[in-house]
Structures are given as structure tokens and as C-alpha cells.
Amino acid sequence: MTDLSAVKAALTSQRIETPSWAYGNSGTRFKVFAQPGVPRDPYEKLDDAAQVHAVTGVAPVVALHIPWDRVDDYAALAAHAADRGLELGAVNSNVFQDDDYKLGSVCHPDPAVRRKALDHLLECVDIMDATGSHDLKLWFADGTNYPGQDDVTGRQDRLAEALSAVYERLGDGQRMLLEYKLFEPSFYTTDVPDWGTAYAHCLRLGPKAQVVVDTGHHAPGTNIEFIVAMLLREGKLGGFDFNSRFYADDDLMVGAADPFQLFRIMHEVVKNGGLARETGVAFMLDQCHNIEAKIPAIVRSVMNVQEATAKALLVDIPALAAAQRTGDVLEANAVLMDAYNTDVRPLLAGVREDMGLAPDPMAAYRATGWAERIVADRVGGEQAGWGA
Amino acid sequence: MTDLSAVKAALTSQRIETPSWAYGNSGTRFKVFAQPGVPRDPYEKLDDAAQVHAVTGVAPVVALHIPWDRVDDYAALAAHAADRGLELGAVNSNVFQDDDYKLGSVCHPDPAVRRKALDHLLECVDIMDATGSHDLKLWFADGTNYPGQDDVTGRQDRLAEALSAVYERLGDGQRMLLEYKLFEPSFYTTDVPDWGTAYAHCLRLGPKAQVVVDTGHHAPGTNIEFIVAMLLREGKLGGFDFNSRFYADDDLMVGAADPFQLFRIMHEVVKNGGLARETGVAFMLDQCHNIEAKIPAIVRSVMNVQEATAKALLVDIPALAAAQRTGDVLEANAVLMDAYNTDVRPLLAGVREDMGLAPDPMAAYRATGWAERIVADRVGGEQAGWGA
Amino acid sequence: MTDLSAVKAALTSQRIETPSWAYGNSGTRFKVFAQPGVPRDPYEKLDDAAQVHAVTGVAPVVALHIPWDRVDDYAALAAHAADRGLELGAVNSNVFQDDDYKLGSVCHPDPAVRRKALDHLLECVDIMDATGSHDLKLWFADGTNYPGQDDVTGRQDRLAEALSAVYERLGDGQRMLLEYKLFEPSFYTTDVPDWGTAYAHCLRLGPKAQVVVDTGHHAPGTNIEFIVAMLLREGKLGGFDFNSRFYADDDLMVGAADPFQLFRIMHEVVKNGGLARETGVAFMLDQCHNIEAKIPAIVRSVMNVQEATAKALLVDIPALAAAQRTGDVLEANAVLMDAYNTDVRPLLAGVREDMGLAPDPMAAYRATGWAERIVADRVGGEQAGWGA
Amino acid sequence: MTDLSAVKAALTSQRIETPSWAYGNSGTRFKVFAQPGVPRDPYEKLDDAAQVHAVTGVAPVVALHIPWDRVDDYAALAAHAADRGLELGAVNSNVFQDDDYKLGSVCHPDPAVRRKALDHLLECVDIMDATGSHDLKLWFADGTNYPGQDDVTGRQDRLAEALSAVYERLGDGQRMLLEYKLFEPSFYTTDVPDWGTAYAHCLRLGPKAQVVVDTGHHAPGTNIEFIVAMLLREGKLGGFDFNSRFYADDDLMVGAADPFQLFRIMHEVVKNGGLARETGVAFMLDQCHNIEAKIPAIVRSVMNVQEATAKALLVDIPALAAAQRTGDVLEANAVLMDAYNTDVRPLLAGVREDMGLAPDPMAAYRATGWAERIVADRVGGEQAGWGA
Questions:
Q1: Which ipTM value was assigned to this complex?
Q2: Residue B2 — very low, low, confident or very high, per pLDDT cuts 50/70/90?
Q3: Which of C290, C336, D159, D264 is such that its CA lies 20 to 30 A from the CA of D245?
Q4: How far is A191 from chain B (nearest CA, A)?
């Protein structure tokens, strides 16, 4: 029933953005386990990202994190990317790792700290101008740990003020993507804890402000695909930070914890037109590979997104709509599950071969010898990590 | 530091709305345990509500539920209330107990069912005209149980259409209060599952549409007082459905499961001006007394709201603001906890005596003999319950 | 790598037990939606169960619920089952629907109520003697709604006393299966809330007492397959009550909410030998079909268990163990996911054809015309429901 | 009704154990905010702990963490403690911060890593011999991040083997306290995730093995006081790691997030005899003070435990039991709430004055000038933190 060539075309043109920080070391508060061969600077991160794109064909964009990816010459960094068939994606701000930010950044009670944080956000837009990035991704660790610690609505006022100042600074073709997160590192209130808060701010700011859905940042039991559908309906879905979790902000590989949920999310994306390039929905990974090899983990994650997308594209929408219209609960569910239960790996292998790639990206990566090469080459210097 | 006479004035003028259905039988899906003396019609429910008001002095409003409280002559019902010092409060619609509503009401795929549901909502506004009620409270059991069962955004379109039709019908001084609920009775999607969805609809509808926060209807870990503060900041908090819970929609007595949370909620209400009559925030109970005696449980619940309010009023706001401004985490928390740790029962006993009431409402109710009287009198007929 | 004939043999010999109550009406506390053609007595429930077995070939056992399935002549009921190729399975006790049980059954503060509850449990063993059932399944709604309501350890003492009395009454070849449940209908404490409590009681009772894992009865985030593995390791897994859920005790079709979780559970069962008939692990459904057609929902559920089992049987255990031994996180995960991502529907169609059945049970059931026949025939009388 | 002198005696003799690591820096995976004046070695941690004991009178015991508190001469460390009126408490093992432990410690697939971990545990017992500590507290970060990563039951076998080896090494009067934790840093399985698992191991090991309840380490909705009551009933409650949380392992000050829960826990402790010194229940703090001043936070935490204990001691047990016996739900709840709603701060001020202490420990600490002194004195060297 489904038009297979359209499915293949959609899969071929999908673009998945990988985050520079996922190539570096990460860990939990208990321990960061260093891995041999990890990049030592933003250039080496791009080298690794190029490997992921080379074997998957759908990961040409790399998100930056400032200051972790600060360089003297952003044009040179962009050229380094372009030489490897990559482009620089969203610029992610970081207003949580200076000592000044202990009690917040743009929501801090002290105006001097707020000013410093705002300056950093504006600097990020400068960097976007230099790199040609379209998206500014904002996540704020701001919040409080104890009841009474600060004024909930006062902090919202400060947040609104900072967002407004940044919004005014955005150029043509630039967007602000506002991420929400239930908790961590704040444990009582978080200043942008849910999609409602992010949506309310973005609505007031205007069309260049949109919401980012990080699939790991919700309360237990939250129906994430519902939120995705709502934001698409309102024209406010800016993109995803993909990862997966069993408990809290586990940051595991996307699709690892609940592949059916990922499929349901992609089903809402596909059904509501979110896969079309012009809607601007960014499909970004935001993961930490604490114990698994980093590049292969990212290859696997890209594949997991592809598989969920392929299944979502296979849903027989007319049959689904017909069953829904007649209230046939079991049949409607069966139509959806039929797509989910399909093994799409052969289909994706074919898509890759059509793109001139090896059918199995994991094997293709292993065959390159890159893993061994970086272990041998990248000695000395300081490994990149969350703070580097 | 706090102005005690202002505190007492606020406590004296507080109005807590009790729900007619809490006087009748209720239960879980496993069993409804009937209690002797339970009302058999709306008039007897008002008689019981009058007892609650008589001993607490702050519960003069009674919410109705249609069709459970359908009567031939609403003017007569309003007069029955007035004779007892009561007034009729929010009219609660019910579009979930007819067989037609198996797959939804205003979001149902079948337009005939949607029309029937809408007609009921419009009838509720007619009843408001007759009773003089100001508020239409809308809760929809609409949703789906299985992925694929129906179209998420299609259902939102149908919802928006129905809400708009009802909104148009509202008269001067009438409001629509839209309640959200995470889940139950729907188990996959709920059409109004969170405050963001309710807010988005109310914003589009206009100033007469506001959000109701039912304290039991959130995912685990949700910071409810944050939502309360957000809605007050946006001018969209219509009121509360108070109850408490340890797990899901337990519908226990407000303040029974987490009295500190109730205090934090009331702190946000007080701090953000929500206690003032003119803001229109309605303080309603929405509880089920499955195993405990109904009238005393409601008296206790009213007292629990009063105690949380009293503690919130005792917060030393200038001291709190000073500690917040200087980033003194422990001191700010201590200022808040100092109010919470205060035993406000003597203060409330004094407030009651100033109002000419007995200091202990529970003892006062016991002394009336009403409990024994209704057991003796209310024999025959059919007891009121969730379906009656 | 996997021995396909062994896989097929395992799938052919699997036995899934369906619950008599799932053929009758059910609902939430808000509404029970009646369906046409629903059975009116235990005999008609068996007739429906026979349809499920006829098209799946692996559902020959039907669990009873007393008093809902009380009949004058249990031998006649067993014969009715045998005539249809069925046998009677676990006897489920019910000590939660009498008015006496408002505050508990075997844990009730009043010894007279405890005695009544114990007598019912002993009657259930009498019925087992009459039906030839091997398993007594015990679930207690016992618990409290409010802190302080009753004494936590006192209730454990009463529970232990009742369980001991029932254990003593068990005959040769009879078992007691103790189910745990986090909450509902009790909202503060539940007397058997978790596997630890059930395990502690069963350990003390002896080898005939084992734990039942209801897949819907856990706190958010609980790793159910871990519990399954632990209980198998301790020799204390008596069986499953299968269903699925997104939130609380949704009682949806098994595999509908999280098919990957069901696969992980079956993987632990297979890996730890739990599929072997002699371990005695019972694979029971315990579901409510509130809005979907009941018999097809049960057919689908049986198929979902089969598919998860098939995938679990396809896991390449030697390859998995090798990757685990060397600490290859991604490869070990990949081995498991390879089995999960396989489309096992063709394999199962083949298994069915080998058994002389149609490859598609859903289509086969539709073709029987049974759905139409029961609607036409079962008029008059009272439909079976949770209370009937 | 309650015997106030007995209450005071119990409060006077209470002993709360503070953890050495709570005096040092800590943070989240995003950032550790350093504080001026933080200790630079175990001796300075004891100096700070002495300040806490000096103003509260009930915190004479300090738990150690090895290797964070490794010194050349443990007798000298014990003498340093004794000079300050302190004694050394539980020795906490650490088998999660070496690179070898990336995939686990005693459950690691590699026997060499397991051996190394076991050697560390045995070294901890050696240290107990040297310090005179009675308790070995074991927490294992062991677990897996991805389904399939390792064998669940195989890991249990390895765990059992290591625990058994340590148990054999324990001397007279020494105990092993086994802590469980739902998740973090492992995100799929944790090898000791719940009380059931810890209990099963301790039961098999023998009477010297007991379970530690960390109040922050449970799934949402878990009734912790129920677990406490169960473990006391089984004689297996070794002690508490107190802290509080709104979401996951927040490690906030005990009583800060849900003071009513802390009261309910202490009510079960008091009611079931757990406050008596001879039961051996250890009342330990295990907190991180990421943004608040460390010593005052610990003083406040000790006070919070005292206040919850005082309220629990005030519960009118005969009145409670009478209401429970007659099934008076509201009255039983009211008896409990009456104690909770009491302001016990004056009572505790009196207890302190009877002990020769200032009535307000927070003010007393401020008056010492210790905070300013350590900021001035502790310059140079490396601050203590989670890794130091």
C-alpha cells in the first residue's frame, strides 16, 4: 500500500545532527571513564563525525558547544568541516560551568551574573554568524534545590528578559531553540521544566523561537509523542535532542531503552509533516557514551533513528485512518503495529547501497581501522570531555 | 513580622467550594462500599454541605455535577441552598458515562457523538443561567487506550471546535474552567493531559477560559506549585481541584499525602496574589471518600486547606526576599520552613471563635448528632453515587 | 546459529492461560461499557476461551475467579472445558468485593472478617480439588488509604497467619501463587506491595508457595526482568499475570505498551530455563478489555506473548555470552537487538501451519463467524462482568 | 498522654552519624562548585564534624569513606576523633572510581577485577579493626547500561561470592550493611536495586549482614516506611542513609523535600522499637551539599532528624491503636497527624538546654566564628571532594 520509492527517498534525504560533545569523554557524577583515542580539540571531533557520516550517509551536520568548542578561527573550523563533507549545526550555549553560575545564569538573583550569562548567549550568536549555523540551542541549568531558595515568578521575569534580548539579536534565517528539562542539576524547581513553559516563552517571543524536545527530559509516564504532535500542530517544534532512558537523564543511545516509543514519536513526526526539510525540525542526538565506544555508539544511534523513521514511513496511513474513523480499536492498533513489527534492516541496507555505501555501517566502520588509528595517533594533549 | 490581623482577615474571608459528589458513594473499579445515611438526591447533598459550612464557616459554595445533580427546577435548588447559607458553584459537565462515549465525547471520531456531547455542554451553560453559577468546569475523559487508535492532532482539532462553540455561548460573568489530567480512564493518550495543552487552548479561546489545576493529576515528580506560579503569572489560573495522592488519581483528602506540597502550593498562591477574591481563583475540593465517613472527611479537608493557607500567610515575605536576593540558600529555606513548622491550629481556633464558631469543627460536627440523624432518616430510595 | 527446530518445538509446546474474567465486561471506576455477546455464565466463558485456543493452539488453560465463576457442579464445569479441549487453570480468590472487606480481608483488624476471608480461601482449595486445578492464586486488595489507619507490622502478622493456614490445607501437587501489587485499590499502604514482601512470605511458607509477577504492578522505572531473573534464580517464580501499561494498572493487552520490555522479560525466562514445563512457571494473562472486542483482544494478546517468546528463543546465546565475557557493550547489546528486530511473524505462521492451524489467528477467528453468533444468541440474562 | 520525660530521654540519647564526604565538595555531573574553607584531609573533616556535634550534642559519630579518607595511621585518626568527643563510624567502601571498574567491581565479568574489588573490601575490614568501627557499609555502583550487556543472574552469582568472602572475614561485633539503589550510575540494571535483593543476600549470609535504607534510592511512589517496617519485623534493618529528594538521587538535606515522609519513617522506627540502641539501627546522613554551606547544612539536617523523631515520639500510641482496632479511619489518621502538626522546636530547645547546649544550634554555630576561621586558615593544599 505504501509507496516504497517515496519511503526510500525520505530515508535518503534524512539528516541527523550529531553533537560534538558525544565524541569526547563523559560520565556520571561518580566517575568519568576516559577512553583511548578520544579527540583533543574541536577539529578532531569533526574528524570523528566525518567517519560517522562516511558510513551512514545521513549525518552531515555537527552541533557545537561553546565554550567546549571555542576556537580562534571559526571560519577555519567551518572549512575543516566542509572539507570532510560536513557542516556546522546548532550552536549550544553553556551557562552552567562557571563558578558564577552556582545559583543560576540568566535567572540568577544577581544582575551582574545575568549580564555575564546574556553576554555569553550573544557571543554564541556571533559564532553562528561566523560558522553559518542557523540554530542557537539554549538549555539552562537554572533552578533551585530547596523550597524558598528563590522566587519562582521572579526568575521567570528574568528569563523572559534575557530571552527577549537574545531574540532581538538573531539575524535572518537564525532561530532560537529552547530546550526544557524536568530536573537535574536543579532538584526542586527548574526554570524551564516542561514543554508548556518553553512554549509560553516561545509564543511570546515570536516565530524564530521554537521548542526542542529532548526525549530523556520528562517525568515518568509522560507521553512524549503527544507533545511532539502538539508542538507540530502549533508550528513550534524546532527539533529533537534524541537519547533514551530507563530512569532519569540516562543519556543512553536513542532507541536503546524503548524503541517502540521512538517509533511512535517518528510516527507523529511523519504523519504531521515534520520530516519535510522546510518545516525545520532538527533531528539531533544528545547522548553520553559513558562505557561504550563513542564512534560506534553514534553510528548505532544514527541507525536506530533511521530504523524508527523507516517503520514510521511504512505505516499504511489510509488503512489507519479508515480504522480510526470506524472506531475499530484493534484494527487501528494492528495497522500501526504491522509497520513496527516489520524488519526494516534489509530496506535500509538497500537505501545505503543506492547511496553508494556499504549495507552495514557498523561493519563498514570497523573495516576502516579508524578506531585503531586514533588510539595510536591521539597521544599527549588533553582529551576532550564535558568540560573541555 | 507578619501582620496577624491581616492573616486573620484573609483566613476569615477564604471560601472553599465542596463538590456535591463527595457527599455520595464512591469507590474504585474493584468495589464501591456504600455508607449508611448517604444523600439520595441533590437536596440532601446540600443539606450535608450546610453542615460542613456550619462548623467551618468557610465552605459556603457547592459545586454541581450534571447529570448527577439534574433536577426539574434549578431555581428551587438554588433557593434550597440559599436557605442554608449556601450558594451553587461550578457546574461540572459529564460526558463520560453514556455508552456513546466509549471512544470519547467532543473528540470522538463520529460527529454525531460530538454533537451530543456539545449539546450537553451547552445545557450546562443553560443550567448556570438558572442557578446563577459563574463557572463551567470541563473535564474530558477523552483519549485513547492503544497506539494508533485515533489521530492525536485530529482529536485536538475536534476539541478546539467544541471548546470554541461553548466559549461563544458563555454569558457575561461566566467562565470556562478547563481541567487537565495525565491519564485515567484513558491509558495511552489523554486529549488534555497537561497544563501546556489546557493553557494553549485557553489562550486561543480568550479571557473567559482558564485552567484548573487538579492536584492529583500529574506525572510523578511534577512540581505542581511551579505550574500554579506559571498560570498565575500568565493570568490563566482559574482554580483548583484539591485532593491528594501517593500514586495516581487516589482522590484522598487534600493535605493527607503531602501536607508540605499543599503548603508550597498555597505559598505560591499567596505570594502571587491568588488569594484575593478578584483574581477569581476557585478553591474547590474534588475528592472521593471511599472508606472514611464522608461529611467528617470533608470537614477535615476544609481544615487542611485552612491550615496550609494559614502557614502560607505566615511566611515572612520581606525576610524571604532578602535571603533570596543575597543567595543565602539555607536562610531562605529556613524562612519558609519556619512558617511551615508553626502549629497554626491555635490561630485557626481563634479565627473560628471570632466568627462565632466552635474552635474545633470536628468536635462541633460530632456534637450536632447529624451523622446519627441521617442514618436514621435516609432509608429507602437510592443512595447518591458517582452515577446517581 | 540458533537451532530452529528447537525454537519451533518450544513455540509449539508453549501454554498460555487465559482468565475467565477477561471474556466478560470490565471498565474503570468511571464507567463499564457493556459489549454485545458477552458471556452470561462460566460455561459461556469457556466457550469463548475455546475459540481462542482453536485459532492459536497454545491457550488450552482457563483460570477461574471465585465467586465470579461459582457453579453448583465443578466437575460438570471441568467436563465442559475438557469437551472443548480446555482444562481449568488457577483458581483466583476474591476477598475484596464484600462490604465486610472495606478495611481489608485477611489483614482486617476484626478477627471475624479475617475468619470469613480465610474460609473463602480454603473454599477455593476445595474447588481446586473438584476441578483438578493445581494453582491457588492469591491477590489481596488489603491495605490502607491514610497514614496511621492501621498498623503495618500488625497487618503482616495477620497476613502470615492466614497464608500459613491456607498453605497447610494445600494437597499434593497444589501450589499457592502469591501476587504483589504496588497500589490500588489501597492508596497508602498495600500489604503485599512488592516482590520482596511476597518473596519473604513464600520463603517462610515453603516450596509450595511461589511469587506471581503481574507485569502491570510496579512503580515507574522498575526493572521487571531483573525481578523475574531474581525469582527464577531463587526458585520462587510461580508465574506471570501478563498485561501492559503506560501509567498505573492499565490492564491493556500484553505487549501493547512496551513490546521491548516483554521481550526482555521473556529473554530472562528463556535464558534461565523458565520455559521448561517442569519449572512450573505459569504464563497467564490478566487483562481488561474495556473498549476493544474481547475475544480478538485475547487472541492478539496470545500472539504477542508468542512473538516475544519467539524473539527470545532466537537470541544467539553463545554469541551473547562471548560479547559479555569480553565486556563488548555494543556487541552484546547488538546480539540481543538482532533477535528483537527480527520479524518473527513468518516463523510463527509456519509453526501454526505445522500444528494444522491457519497462519493468521485473527483472520481465522473472524472467519468463524463466532462474533456474530454470540451477539445473536446471547440475549437475555445478565452479562458477566467483574462482579458477575 | 505521652510520657514527656521518656520523650526527652530518647531525644537526648539519639545518635546521628554524619558522613565525612558531606564536609567536602560535591556536585552533579555538570559541575562541582568549590566552597572556601572546605577540608583538605580527613583530620580537617573531623574538625568540622566536631563543630556539628558541639552545637547539636547528638552527632558524635563520623562515617569514613575509603580511599577518600585513607591515612597512614588510623589509630592517630581515631585519637584525633576522640580528642574532639567523636568516634569513627561506618567504613564505606568505594569500588567505583578506578578505571578498572567501568563495567563493575565484584560483579565484573573479569575475575581479576573482581579480585581487586574484593581485596579493597577486605582492606576496609582491616581499617575497621584499626579504627574500632563496627560497620562495613557496602554500596556497589555495579550494573549495566544496556539490555544484553551482561548476564543478570551471572552477576548475582559473582556478587554472592564476594559478599560471602567478606562476611567470613568479619570479626566479632562487626557487621556488613548492604545498601540498595534503584539506579545511577547504572542505567539499565543495578545489581542491588531494591530491598528484596539486599534482603535475599543478607538472609543467606547470616545475622551479621543487614540492609541499609537510603531514603533517596527508590522508584517514584515507593512507600519507604513500609520497607522500614518490614525490615524491622524481619530483624534486618541495619540503618539509614538519610537524605531527601524530589526526583532521583538528589541527595538534598534530609527532611527538606518531604518532611511528612521522614516523620512516617521515624514513626515506624519508634513503633517497632528501632530507636533502642541495642537494635543497632544506625541513623546516618548521606547527603551532598552542592550549593549550600556545608557545616550549617549538616547542622540543619541533624535538627530535621531530631524534629521528625520528636514528633514520632509524641504519637499517642494507645489512642492510635484504639482507633485502628475499631476501624475509625479518620480518628486513627487524626491521632498521627496531631503529633505531626505539633511544633516540636520548643521541646527540642529544652532538651538542648538540659544537655547544656544553646537552644538554637544554627545560631550557636554562627556565633562560633568557625565558618570565617576555616576560610581564613584553609588556604593552599587540595580541597576534599568526592574524589579526594
A1: 0.97
A2: confident
A3: D159
A4: 9
